[in-house]
Each structure stands twice: as structure tokens, then as C-alpha cells.
Amino acid sequence: MLLHSFPLTILLLSTIPVTPQWGAVGDESGGSVAAAGPVVQGRPFTMVWNMPTASCQERYGIHLDLGAFDIVENHHQSVKGQNMSLFYHNQLGLYPYISQEGLQINGGVPQRGDLEAHLALAQTQISALLRTGFSGLAVIDWEKWRPLWVRDFGIKLEYRRLSKSLVRREHPALTKQEVNSLARKEFERGTRAFMSETLRLGVRLRPRGLWGFYRFPECFNYYRKQKSYTGHCHSKTRQKNDQLAWLWRQSTALYPSIYLPQQLAGSSDATLLVRHRLLEALRVANQYPTDTHATPVLPYARVAFAHTLHFLNKTDLEHTLGESAALGMAGVVLWGEQRFTKSKRQCEILRDYIHSELGEYISSLKGGVQRCSGERCHGNGRCARRDPYSDHMIPLSDPFSNFLPDPSHDLSHLRTNFLCQCYQGWEGEECQERISSITNT
């Protein structure tokens, strides 16, 4: 089925606005929906390894002991496996895009892609890679274009130009304004079809997997060395993200990016950047929940600053991993490219970082989150800040770590500054009450 085969009259019709689903922990409506449950049973906060580090062991005999710090990994630390699978644009179906050389691959723009052939190939690939009972993270990384026309700026403008060129070729009598309008509708119709149907396929084939797109939802709060950086998302972020309601309703997990630019090393502005990206993801997760609970949010964090091999120190880890835990994320995905394993020396540096600063901080943080869940929420929920804009952090707690427990780590501190987000089947201020099923007789 070629997407550009639909009649012109249909494509020129205005789209019907989608009414958002309200009702979530902490949303504006005052409604309630259960929090996303643990990604791994019994762990309110899960760290997932998504770095291609198998070569450290295979080539150089250097072992990265992730299990010592309870970091979830695939067999042999592969980027694809039964715990975590990341699909790049050339690894799942027939993704339409324009290459760096200007070649139109698989149609070039989504409205000219062959959706039926794409889904057929994707089904074969998913079935071959993921076991029937797959319950891990399934992340699709498509970054060549964005689903909303207005957000395809910069180098992505080529998709708008090609879309308009195709419309002019097929409908030479249209005015410039009509060309632009039709091109936008055709393009957005194509992006929606490819993204939503690919998610639908994944969920149908492996329904227990956590399916979603990397970097979504976006916030557009880039750091530009502003003197008074607030971290707030772009003013139209909510409006534009709500136009993607179809995407959130198909997603069974959200994977926003919280990579830090090196200019924010050690800066409190890093917290603002991360906080507002996560708050927007939480808003989407709660506004467009699954049938039974809020959509789990697992941000992608880089172990080093963006586009560098300079690792995050404890302060930077607090600004990313710590902030994620304090806001009630289900976990964090740790990502890095192959540059981290390009040589024996680089593997040694990575190993030493994991076995010291990174591993110790993760152990301390996970211990604190586990303790907060147990003491504050009876193990039936996840802790999250009462005031998401405050700087209260979940106290670190790990007897095997070099970090000492925070002196404020007591139940009074947790009750004052953190609330419980109860898992499905539990309710009450401390998730102490089991919800009984009510059936009509």
C-alpha cells in the first residue's frame, strides 16, 4: 500500500482534533490512574545498559561487571537482546529517508513509502530477534525526520522541500499556499502511518515489551548559554505534543533524551534542562495512559557529555540519574556509541569508571529509591517529589558504597518531601490499601 495513492480531496480535508485522555496521578483534572509498575519485578527504579560494549570482553578480555551494580544488560552486552533492543533506521522494516548523499531511500519521504512492505519486513525481523515472551525495552530510533511538519527544521527541511516538490509535480494548478498545505498533510499522514503502525505491529507481536520511540516526547529546551536559563520547554511544546496523541496511545513506554552538553558540566542549569524534559514526558505519560496504568518513562542518559568521551562526575550524575529518580521515573537507559570501546585503553577507562564513580552512585541511588519505596510506600509504589520543582533528592543508601547515607534520610524527610505513586491494585497515601475488585451480581 503506497501512502501517496489517497485521493486529493481526502487529503485536503481538515484533520479532526483529538480529545486528550485526562486522569492521572498529579494531572490537572484531579483524576487518578495507577503508576507504571516496575520494569523489573521488585525494582522501583531500573538502570538499563544500552551500549555496544561486548567488544571489550571479546577483543581485549576486559570484563565490565554491570551485574555487580544491578544494571540490567543483554547477554554479552549486545544492543539487541531479550532485555533491551534498540532498532536504528536501517534495522527495522523499510524506513523512508533521504541519505546524506541526497538519495531517496525507500521513497525518501514517508508518504511515498511502501507501508505494507515495511510492516512485512519488520514483522520478520521482530519475530526473528525477540522471543515470544519478550518483556524488555523495545526502542525505535528514527531521527531522520520528525512526525510534525513544523518541527522539521534545519537539515530536516529537505523533507518539506521534497514533499512540496512532489505535490507541485502532481498538481501543477495549485497555488503556493495550497501546495504547502497539501504537502504538510500528506507528509504528516505518512509519518503517522509509519510510526503508529510500526508500534502497533511491535505491540501485537510482543505485547509484553515496552515499545516506544527514542527522544519522544521532545521538549526543545536546548541550552544556548543563556544568562537566565530556565529549562522550560518551548512555549508550544504542550500543544504540539498533544497533536501526537495518536503516538502516545500506541506507545507502551516513553524514552525522552536527557543528554547533557559539556557546557553544563557541574552546573545547576543541567538540573533545569533535565527536569523540564522529564516533566513533559510525565505529563504525556499521565495524560495518555495505557488501559491500566500510566505509561512508564525511561529517559535515555549518556554516561558522558554529548559528543564527547568525558564521563559525568557525581554532580552530573545527580543532575541526570538522581533527578530522574526523584521525579518518579521507572528507570533510566544508559547509552553510548562504539567510540567507548574503540581500543583496549578506552575499554579500561570505561571499566574503571563503571567500577568506581558510576557504579557506586547507581548502587547508592537504587538503594535509596528501594528504601523509599519500602518505608514510604510499603513496596507497593514509587516515590516522587511532592513539589516537582523543588530540589529535594532521594537520599542515597547503600552499605557497600563509598557514599555515606544522607543524614536527612529518615521517614519524616520522606513523608514531608515525597509522595507515593501507587502501582496498579494499590491505593492510599502510603499505598497500604489493596484495591478490591467489585463485581456486579
Automatic annotation (TrEMBL):
Report the Gene3D superfamilies cross-referenced here: Aldolase class I
BP GO annotations: carbohydrate metabolic process; hyaluronan catabolic process
Q: Which residues form the active site?
A: 143
Drop me one GO molecular function for this one. Answer: hyalurononglucosaminidase activity
What GO cellular component is one of the record's annotations? acrosomal vesicle
EC number assigned by the record:
3.2.1.35
Q: Spell out the disulfide connections.
A: 56-347, 219-233, 372-383, 377-420, 422-431
Q: Which UniProt keywords apply?
A: Disulfide bond, Glycosidase, Hydrolase, Signal
Q: Which reaction does it catalyse?
A: Random hydrolysis of (1->4)-linkages between N-acetyl-beta-D-glucosamine and D-glucuronate residues in hyaluronate
What InterPro entries does the record tag this protein with?
Aldolase_TIM, GH, Hyaluronidase
- Signal peptide region: 1-23
Family, according to the entry, reads as follows: Belongs to the glycosyl hydrolase 56 family.
Q: What is this protein called?
A: Hyaluronidase
